[in-house]
Give the backbone structure.
Amino acid sequence: MKRPLALVPLAALLALPACRKDEAGSALTLAMMPKNKGNPYFVSCRKGAEEAARELGVRLLWDGPTETDPAKQNEVVEAWITRGVDVLAVSVENKEAISTALRRARQKGIKVLTFDADAEPDARDFFVNQATPQGIAHTLMDRAAGLMGGEGQFAIVTASLTAANQNEWIAHIKARLGEKYPRIELVDVRPSDDDRQRAFSETQTLLKVHPKVKLVMAVASPAVPGAAEAVKQSGRTDVRVIGLGLPNACKPYIHDGVVESIVLWNTMDLGYLTVRAGHALATGALAAGADGLDAGRLGRVEVRGDNVLLGTPFTFTRENVDQFDF
Amino acid sequence: MPPERAQPWGNSSHEAVLALIVLGEVVVFSLLGTNFLSLGNAAEVLRAATPVGLLALALTPVIVSGGIDLSVGSLLGFSAVVLGELWRDGGVPLGTAVPLTLALGAAAGALNALLVARLRMPALIVTLGTFSLFRGLAEGLTAGVENYTGFPAGFLRLGQGYLLGAIPTQALVLVAAAALYGVLLHASVAGRALYAIGFSPEGARHAGLPVGRRLALVYVLSGVMAALAGLVYVAYLGQAKADAGTGYELTAITAVVLGGTSIFGGRGTIHGTLLGVAALAVLHNGLRLADLPTEMAGVLTGLLLVAAILARRWLAGERTTT
């Protein structure tokens, strides 16, 4: 009689308890979901989140889709609602779809945060906002002015001429320029359609049409390496590139010196602040109407309306860029 | 639900083993998970399992007949965006758009049926083609970015609502579909013919069975079910996008095979498929409630599948020796 063989899968399942971590019964449970678990951007968010969780004694659950199925984020949230967590923090992939699930979580008394990408405002308590358009624009313009010695010509390579985000940043850049740097002139704004190749050729044209340009500011992440390659190939060592970009794509150019710096937010700090904000929300230290939040090593951060602000964007330079991998 | 006389076509010992596996999962996750053993969670498992469950039901007679339909996940996505397009951009009221979407599913299924049943092309190749075709149409229609949202509450109730406060609406759809397929496969002349065709298509032809018509029926029905799954999916998420249902065909096939249906045809039951769907759905849900990484679901699904097949072989061997 070989029947006990059928129990093999059962035995496999019964072996599972060994995998379970010990948990402190009373610890606050915070469940955090990235858009995609494998994306290095979120891997570095997780590092910061775990750091804050250790400091605060928060039990951090980290799970999310490993594929692009839009139903997966909802399934995970539904499971967390059933499981019963104290705080949910989600980087939203599909705004409309996830908002339904998040509203249900709020009805069940779970505190809900979004980070990195927001849901519909009534579906969460606070959004941990990594960067305001004004913050990005001011950081970029101040950096540019410093490099240019406060005078001369520069040009912008944008995503497309109709891109809403970029146009908002450019408006703030122009405002900063008019206000603080009268001797600097913005001579051209060229589109790249979020394409590295297009940014490359537009920058080549730019350098020919405006030979006096001292700095190219690329405000879309694929445009930074594209513009940098064009400047590098032109052999013009007097032209510098800065922009809003991702560290990995820009690393070689930063080490070459073609790209002086790129501006983005510190993803580790974003994860750190999200857990800090979640803890504050659950313990009542953060509530509607607050104007600030004590966020551990980040100091006191500003809360504007229902947004928790990460603060000034982070500048990646030759000195620190190798610490980041995304 | 299926009567005793269905047993010659299935393998009741296999289903008993599978039922034990599901029970084992429930026991383990009750111990490991937080709030696993609750009515509310049972409802969530049903809710999450419905789209794949509908596809698995549709695939059971297809696989029993010796065929395969790889296009169901893509057709789910295509149906979802067509519904969105008709309703939002075409101004068609949902009362009309829903039947139109189901008709589209039937038409898409008829295309598979034409190629497989009439032109006798291999189902694997035909549906591999329509797998790309339907997904491509969905992406083309929406340029890959369009996301239809804002469906009226009455429609969303199909995927988000509860009956009597506890039963998810879509569970009724699943139960109704299971009953229909149970009758088709286990209590109808057409169902018996499908088993015969699965065992030996040529034999079935020589025996005078209308092989083409029977095959056409299951492929057309499969298309309708994929469209129905699309409707439920859209109502559940409240959005219709071209990537809806990506990869669902493989999960559904896994559930069917896990449920004891032979991939070579001729054997399989609807209740086996339902157990297969349950085994996968409980596994995914339980892992999350136990705070275990969901990647484990892939590993455990593989183990379950291999174990189930080994168990079937062993049971079949035992039966012939005793």
Observations:
- Chain B touches chain A through 54 residues (CB under 8 Å).
